[in-house]
């Protein structure tokens, strides 16, 4: 059929290509132009303005710090969850269902949930007070407590974003026939060896997808940070938002957007290279 | 000594009894097949011996040492899986070396053992390839080499040939027999394929519904099945079972009187292998109505009825019997198995 009419596949993918081109590529080109031009001429003035801003270095540092802390913890927790649930027979679906609840919560809502726990009049302080640990309201989210603020944001992000990693990893684990682990067990591999030498290499594709997805999302972190820390904890997307809305400077906001895109692309490339998946070595 | 004693093993999954008190002894160096239809419990029994499944009760001993509480790796055994379970992310060499590496063997020993096993299974040319580049038969060789490389006391094989095509299966069967004979490893082999079990085994344990129906030499099981199930499961075509009247301790078959075991009622089941007959003129022979005659080249397969009960018999290819004929058959009385119509169990052979 398609051999006689080779244009049919192209016709079928045309709508999606046109849609993406219109709503993605065009704004992308516009944004890049906005970032790299000044009064209609190519210029690095916006970039310079971004870099010299007092919050720039802090936002870069905070975003990277958060990503470096949050993503590995999420991968580790998701691997542990996936491995544990694999041992469960009855009730497996229910457990998975409960574990994926955070997937259905918007990031701003998640931020507000944690705000209600950690703010001065929140549940956490009430608990500490009733246990007699603190005598009066303690502050966790202010600029005076940067470590506590960082931990709070990291915990909220881990709570919110681990479910998606777990879903991908559980899917990956399901692809691994149980005979591989059984064979390894019979030939003398203990639980850790089985995990490191058999399971982990075999779920490499899932691991790669999860890492790319989670890292890109981690560089785009915004709503949770905004809800918990406001401007006390500047991050890249937060700065883009401020330049756009507070400062009404669309050009510097655009430079931030381009910077985030470059970082995400670089991270993706690094993962693709470092965790190269050789189809020859898959089950 | 690596004899295996399976002592009253039971396994229940909820209310379902997968294994109902299985006892079986396998001698050192012996090749024993667990043969039965799917769901008979043969794989469950093998997995209990391997330590991949726990038994509800009972004991398994290898060389007088109880292994039932030990981890699989401490049982001194190796296993070949139905889907090979050759690790796709390791080269053939690393696959074969896996068990030795886990035992922390030094490089020289690993190399020597891998080369030895690879030589036995003829996989030397593929040692640095990845399993995905290999055919099913080659992967199966890798799986067997991986198992033999650790020089196990006991080798467990779970339907190792069932994923191969027919021609390759025959070839691998012959080769397995050669390799395992020279290795001298005590082997338990699970299969649903009776020709595999017949061809490979020193002894066969025929399993059905969680029970061992009969253990014995392949020929003994073929000629004198202990139960109707065994007779029907082994052999192609399966054994014929004809219910016949008994009078004065004898069964009339054409002109012949066949003696039957003493304590039977007025009916008995005559178990007859399809090829244990020869053509005889009526009325000397027992009468068979031939519904279909199929010349198979090597032999002539006849489907029809004796005493209005369905039978299949095999005659030499040179005989000229056509569909619709009525023929007479002389039964080879030494190869008749008498079975109880009630219990389906066979009587001990009667001397003629």
TrEMBL record, chain A:
Cellular location(s): Cell membrane
Swiss-Prot/TrEMBL keywords: Cell membrane, Membrane, Plasmid, Transmembrane, Transmembrane helix, Transport
Record carries keyword Kinase: no
Major location category of this protein: membrane
Residues spanning the membrane: 63-84, 96-117, 147-173, 211-229, 249-272
GO terms of biological process kind: transmembrane transport
InterPro entries registered for this protein in UniProt: MetI-like, MetI-like_sf, UgpAE/MalFG_permease
Alphabetical list of Gene3D superfamilies matching this protein: MetI-like
Residue ranges of domain ABC transmembrane type-1 in the record: 60-271
Cytoplasm found in the keyword field: no
Membrane topology annotation: Multi-pass membrane protein
GO CC terms, sorted: plasma membrane
Similarity comment text for this entry: Belongs to the binding-protein-dependent transport system permease family.
The protein, known as: Binding-protein-dependent transport systems inner membrane component
